[in-house]
Amino acid sequence: MIGFCERRNRPFFLHVASVKMKAHMKTKNIEQTVIVEARPDDVYDAIIDPRLHAEFTQAQATNTMKVGGKFTAYDNYISGTNIELTKGKKIVQKWTSTDFPDGVYTTVTFAFKKHAKGTELVFTQTGVPEENASEIAQGWKDFYWKPLKAFFKMKKHG
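Now predict its structure.
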């Protein structure tokens, strides 16, 4: 579950002390669709390639870019495993954070489709605690989609 910290101006996973991570906890899925003015392969690369990811988020990232491989983002605050990687089509990852109890993950899926204006990015995050879903959903818009669009706009108009 991803949240966002205005003080640090970067995403963070919600401190779960107040959220009991139990099997019966109600969760929601976040689904968002974003149009990015770039080719699907280029948007895929910006998400998965640690150099490009760091460039658009302005924070350190690592990624083996292999299925089963590990990644980090936002200066090691987020980490996880690549589950599925299909160039220009789909990324599925298990995500956790330094704020999560050991072993707690959400699953994020980025699906890329060609669109008249570039790429339609369909995003899903599963396993988000219901009480935090709206703020987490807004965080994706503010701290991923907005800088991702700006990154490609800057490249286009260079």
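DSSP finds three helices and nine strands in the chain.
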